[in-house]
Amino acid sequence: MSETPVHGPDVKTAHQDLHSEQGALHGEHPGRSRNPVIKVADLAWLEFEKPDLERAEVFARDFGFQVAARTESALWLRGSFAGTPCMVIRRGRTSRFIGPAFRAAERADLDRLARAIGSDVRDADVPGGGKAVGLLDPSGFPVRVVHCGEQLRALPEQRPLLLNFGTAHRRTNATQRPPREPSRIQRLGHVVLETRVFSRALDWYLDTLGMIVSDFQFLDGQRERGPVMAFIRCDLGGVPVDHHTLAMHLGPGTGYVHSAYQVTDLDSIAAGGEYLKERGYQRSWGIGRHIQGSQLFDYWRDPDRFMLEHFADGDLFSRDVEPGWAPLSTSGLAQWGPQATRDFLGAGPSPQRIRDVIRALRGDNEMDPARLLGLLKAAKS
């Protein structure tokens, strides 16, 4: 179980207005584990199944991925940065999210993790080879921790535009003409998951994979019951990392919400969005700038209705920054931009959503009528 960490003299607390108006109250979740099994270094890739790999590849290229490897049964996608692929799509009968793979900091971490859970280290079917340990999180998602033997080489970048600011004139005798082309994905940033067992899943990621919380969110009038959403980052000590690599929220369903991929800058987001719109894809929400994480964002739906995000200019935190606490609300999703859409919020009363609510209220989980009403109120606030 996660315990309150020892605070050193250099700890930056949330009430110093670094990223939240509020810090933790006495006795609230500390947002990190005292003695985790291992500390993962980053997300490696996400795994999906889809029946039509050809259609999936067309969207992937339009969205800004490049193909790392392709077989009859699997499509491996990558960004321009060196490292691992961003995503693998395996041929299957239905379109579904399988689970995330996290990158181990060292090969020895796989042995330590395997011993702790009574499992084996196995070969990872990734281009270039590698090793992996398979786990199952409390929500039922298959999770892999991997160490790859061979890294993908860096590819040419989409250069950021040279901008003029006030009296700082960096561009003279030259025009600005960002090309109308796909945003060039640099890397995988984060994945967001919905779960009915939020507290158990949160502690599992902190205790097993050594992740730490950047921001908690709670329901209005229910703070004493604990948070219902967490933005979680990797712990690389003094090395700053993404504000969140994993985000989870309590809900009536269990599943994938969206994943986010870094691009160069705002012009890359905007021009790439125009490219996607011209090809008939659906924008879910954007363009805007978030509050938790601060990143510029633009959300799109792929042909199988999975949501993917282009982002740029996100927050980077080292281990010294303590969790912030804030109420969950739709108005708190962005500093500026259009109002969050019903599509982004998943607010439509679909038959599947109704079944999820009924199942959650009848099951052994953390959903109850008060939590459900609180979530509905947050979605309208």
TrEMBL record:
SUPFAM superfamilies: Glyoxalase/Bleomycin resistance protein/Dihydroxybiphenyl dioxygenase. It comes from Streptomyces paradoxus. InterPro entries: Glyas_Bleomycin-R_OHBP_Dase, Glyas_Fos-R_dOase_dom, MMCE/EMCE_epimerase, VOC_core. The keyword Flavoprotein does not apply. This is Catechol 2,3-dioxygenase-like lactoylglutathione lyase family enzyme. One of its GO terms (biological process) is L-methylmalonyl-CoA metabolic process. Keywords: Dioxygenase, Lyase, Metal-binding, Oxidoreductase. Pfam families: Glyoxalase. One of its GO terms (molecular function) is dioxygenase activity. It comes from the Bacteria.
